Fold these 4 entries.
Entry 1:
Amino acid sequence: MTEVIMPKMGDGMEEGTLLEWLKKDGDAVKSGEVIGNIQTDKATLELESPATGTLTGIILEAGNAVPVGRPIALILKPGESIPAGWGSGAPGASAAPAEAAPAVAETATPVEAPAAAPAPETRIKASPLAKKVAADKGIDLSTIQGTGPGGRITEKDVLAAPSAPAAAAPVAVSAPAPIVASAEDQVIKLPRLRQITAKRTTDSKQQVPHFYVTVEVDVEAIGELRAMFEREESGKVSVNDFVIKACALALRDMPEVNAVYQGDQVTIFGGVHVGMAVAIADGLTVPVIKNADQLSLRQISARSKELAKKARENKLGLDELSGSTFSISNMGMLDVDNFLAIINQPNSAIIAIASARKKVVVNDQDEIEVRSRMNITGSFDHRALDGAVGAKFINAVKKYLENPSRLLS
């Protein structure tokens, strides 16, 4: 007998959501065969069978989340059977202690208990996410009947429960007027990735003191190089590829930006791993180009195309989604003048790339020219970096972009 557990797909992963079972109870499976899909806080990943045998004893329904390491099904070999108590918290593989009835109920003799003895408190079984949602909504978990394994309360149970009535506040607090639904309204359940994106961006804006620095970059020379690449039939190189390379070299020149704030210390990373935000149907994901400072411009171009394609096909692996030390968000293709990106924690900085536009400018010789310019804005964590450092870094990136021949070596 082999337990199928919720795997730990990264250091920061605490729980996973089962999106779907690709095999049903009673199906024969082989070791390494994909039997389901799970959603982490970074992406959707495949759940592989840990053994060969028959899939059975499924105790996690699609749409529910459990902590990593928690058993969710069994793989049985011929002659084996589901153990007694499976699915009710009895199996010892559960990460939490088995929730049993109070010991006095098991061993009590038929004599009257002392009247003064308090009733033992029964521990409420609920997932960490369910507890958080209940706290946010002011719902008493003891009033909810759980539908998860062994009566465990899930996020779905909490969301379905009526909200607690508002308590009388000692001080009057103004609140927004309630939204009155109409026949034209449409309620759309957020996909799991969109929920995760919402939580992570909210956490970043609440926890990280952002400051922003914007510069205007002349990208005329980049346009000429891109045209040269196309004439040589060596493949298209995007503006984003130049930005990734420029940022990677600037990070190598200013390693203090390639860092993470950790309370009473700042860790400066030895490797330069650039995350690039990719918009997909269900939200936003950030695949990572590892050791970008050591890659040529063409290698960065090939790798970024590969990662973007895999992101849209939902085929990114865990290693391709983790380990970023800096991030880039590019909306240049969406006709925007400027925007401010939210830092992708635990990074200390992210750069936002706007659209390139033809502008009338005055050059160094006081002559009027029409040049291609674009705004880039750095968002920085003020706990790790001071304003002067952010300004120097964004100008270092600008210098590389305005002299792109330095990016070809």
Note: Helices lie at 103-107, 128-137, 155-160, 192-207, 220-231, 239-253, 297-312, 387-402.
Entry 2:
Amino acid sequence: MRRLPPLPALRTFEVAARLGSFAAAASELNVTPSAISHQVRSLEAWFERLLFVRGTRRVELTPDGRRLLSGLTQAFDLMHDSCAVLRSPDQVRVLAVHCAPSFASKWLGPRIGRFMQAYPATTLRLTSGPEPPDLRRNTGIQLGITYGAPPERAAVEVQALGLEPTVPMCSPRIASTSEPITPQDVVRLPLIESKLNPVHWADWCRVNRVRLPPAARPSFDRGSMAIAAAVDGLGVVLETLRFAESELARGELVLLDGPGFRRIERETHFMCWRRAERDHPALSAFREWLVAQLATSPDGLST
């Protein structure tokens, strides 16, 4: 027999932790904030440890709370999907997508509303994380969008999301593009490392035939963080144009590029799905929609 705390208390905790607010959780669950607080206290008593640090307007998870939440949301998603398969397809169509964090925040997030408007009958459940999902074991996810190398899994199909140019970019405060600039000029500027990007400064310098200065450089383990650092004027970031569409459009970043530069283009994002589910209606619709969005992307990417 499984020894578990009461299911209503676990459900209440998951909603409050996900929303970061007892009041917001009360609104979603259609109960009073005091009922949320009571359920959370009962769960803390069951575990004999605090799960939240209470604030005036918001609550924050303790380390124990974060550990509990990490698996609980996925568990409830799996329960939801298991129940959903017994309902009529006309009643519900759920699509669970797991996405690399920077792609989710910088490219997919600003467009996801278009999918929801085009397919109102599909309920999209989007999660993000750096590790690619193992679709053989995690049946609660129908589609994975991964970063880096294409995942190799038996019975899993993979499709690259196009070639992505990786280009030096910086704030206009760092370097003006009104005058011609050379690759040698670029490496004289402060450089930012985007650690997870498979294209590094050493690769770019080798292709552009310049010497990489042997200096320590600030580094970030998310492309979105490296882009933000460049916007703040910390230096020049070498990243995919896919992550910098908004910043380039607003003039917060400028490209350090030109006739004397050689771009590096690689396939770095991939979507994957179980071969047995390739004809799932919501999954097929999302794949087709995503490819169409890439084809009309304004960043000059080839797909």
Note: Residues 22 and 34 are 8 Å apart (CA to CA).
Entry 3:
Amino acid sequence: MIYLNYEGVMNMKYRCKICGSVINEKVNSSCPMCYADASFLEEYRDIEEQPQVFQKAVQISDNNLGIERDNAKCIDCGQCKETCMERTGLDFGSDTEKCLSCGQCVLTCPTGALKVKKELDHVLKAKDEGKILICYTSPAIRVSIGEEFGLKPGTFCLEELVGSLKALGFTYVFDTTFGADLTIIEEASELKSRLLNHGVLPMMTSCCPAWVKYAKDNMPEILDHISTCKSPIGMQGEIIKTYFCEKKRLDQTEVYTVAITPCTAKKMETKETNIPGTDAVLTVTELAEWMKKEQIDFKNISKSTFDTMFQEGSGGGTLFGVTGGVTESALRTFYYLMTHEEFTEDLMPIHSLQNVKEYTLDVGEYTVQVAVVHELSKAKKILEDVCLGKSPYHFIEIMNCEGGCVGGGGQPKYVLENESEVKKERIHGLMNRDQTISVHAAHHNPDIKRIYEEFLKVPNESIAKKHLHREEESKV
């Protein structure tokens, strides 16, 4: 079949198989965008003229809350499906509701066809309406945002980040490591309760929304094992809309909350009806795009610090951005709750890029066994043992993305050959911060102490459960 334009002339274009660029005429030398050899230029017709049927690409629903695909850029290479199989162990075919929205395919797509589903327009609309903009930034962002502005991976850019957010118009800028510290207080208290009261063990972490969705969709029989705690962002948004607004005498309807995250799956999580409090989620790449549009000079921006009441969290909260970080932070507080002594052991090995790591800890009369897993596809054996009632562990941390949140789908893209090195540098940046910050554990965070005294009262009990847990999922 020959396609003609309205003048009766054949409408032929060419697309580069490497970068996906569409050009009007074939050149003899190379692609004008990526300089690939002319042999990589294939015949191409506009999407309006030729319906596209993808044979190798993973299917993405229009209703996906985290990611989307630009069909015009897709070359149907199958890299996205390969990534999904390799990193999550999933091949969901046409059942697109089982997509975890984790965005790992966004990081590996060679043409940029797969991308983050943007929410910036919603934020700008709220700003134009005069809403009070409040944002909170996840730990992993401060060691990756600099990459968007020419800095090396792992460069710690906290004050530049906060200064930039202030320049964009946010009235309050908070640290989500406060929410991480809240999570640890609740999670460690929950683990203690399960251990002492013969509750469901092992207890598994609930911080990673892609992992939680995976369990709901594929292994509902293990849901009792997952902590009832909301994620740090879930807790942070809830506390801002309740405690903070009350303290500042702010009308909740006039407040617009934005979570800045390394994770595309957080967009899915915050739309769930049982996790209110966050109005929009922007990834690192979305934030960087906004900053560049507003001509923010990131390297020379007037530096700033987090606003009071929810200032920077503990070193343990900062570790939430790396594999093993939730475990180490939880053990610091769990050990203290059980023994009234500080946990001082060196847990460096659990932060390596080895996918499955184990650790055994003596806590008083108990010997507690923990496991750390990152990349869901590597969790199969551990999850099977839990289902069969044969798991030797008491606590299991599972993160969907390799390296933890430093490897999230909303992070700056990297050359795939350098992936491990980039993640190692980001991990090092956060671990170094943990070593240098004065408040080392969640239970020593003065803001955390204050909010329990004034509002939440007792961890893992009525008021705290109302605001910080998914009560309807609690069966422990």
Note: The chain has a mean pLDDT of 91.
Entry 4:
Amino acid sequence: MGFFLETLLGGLMAGMLYSLVALGFVLIFKASGVFNFAQGAMVLFAALAMARFAEWFPQWTGIDNRIVANLFAFAVAAVIMFVVAWLIERLVLRHLVNQEGATLLMATLGIAYFLDGLGQSIFGSAIYQINIGMPKEPLMAFESTFPGGILINKEDLYAAAIAAALVALLSLFFQKTTTGRALRAVADDHQAAQSIGIPLNRIWVIVWCVAGVVALVAGMIWGSKLGVQFSLTTVALRALPVVILGGLTSVPGAIIGGLIIGVGEKLSEVYLGPYVGGGIEIWFAYVLALVFLLFRPQGLFGEKIIDRV
């Protein structure tokens, strides 16, 4: 029982990180109705900015304090992501209002390649480290309840707590604020939202800024765990099954989908992997997403689209 709970907790913590990345997809889709293929590039760009500015801060100021350097780097990286969001709206999205979804999709692909190249041109293409002070040593818990206790990775625990806090704040933002309701209205119908006075351009800037902050937090956490490198863009691919499972328009769906995928990957790898030679964790999420596409393409919490003839 102890080993099962250990695996389950590991899956839940990994699932929260998947949910964090998936939120970036959901935010953009809710505001523009397009799947944002630039989300992985945004995670990499934000992580590169934070890693490099944290490294440059002591050189510029002579202050060798990791906490101060990280706070400075996070603030600068957040400002950079705001500027990137404003430029994307000003130079790209503003000219594509009311265009077909395929047009917006291709635009996000172009943005992804541009951010990939720009980030490595400015900040370099080596592997960089982000040290935000998350403990690396494991934690033994419930030793009096289960023989040998339950081994918990402290770094994963802290990362999951940060992701959960941000997810909760974004959920409240969408459900309780006027801007959040305006975002949902824009997602339903661009023209109808404009007709009742919702400024589409401003809404798109806001949602890309929020998605940029989500990408920064995701990049910070994944960069701390894996190092900041080009392969960080593939983290977004791990979140694709999450948004398919939870629904492209649902913030709660991104959370539940991430937890299901995280737990499913860990349990299947541990309990089924030995019988099939391992590697289930790599493809489990995509097979599950394929099943949902066949039988419930809108996802668990997505809105069913009904076309009247």
Note: Residues 2-295 form a domain with the ABC transporter involved in vitamin B12 uptake, BtuC fold (CATH 1.10.3470).
